[in-house]
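Because showing beats explaining, we let one protein speak, sequence and backbone structure tokens together, and leave readers to judge.
___
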Amino acid sequence: MKTDELTFEEAMEKLEAIVEKLEEGDVPLEKAINYYQEGMTLSKLCGDKLNSVQEKMTQIMNEQGEFAPFEIQEEQ
């Protein structure tokens, strides 16, 4: 499965598994570097997915079916 096809949860599971392997400390240097690079890719993927969700959460669909920024109106 390609990295960009992963869900946020799948990417987090893989990232946690990589962190556990690296924390064990008995990983050969070259393999550790590969794990690190894969971990950074997964970290970026998770960050991008979170940013995408955050952008969607700040918008609301208006009457025309278009997304518009969501603004909270405070009572005066």
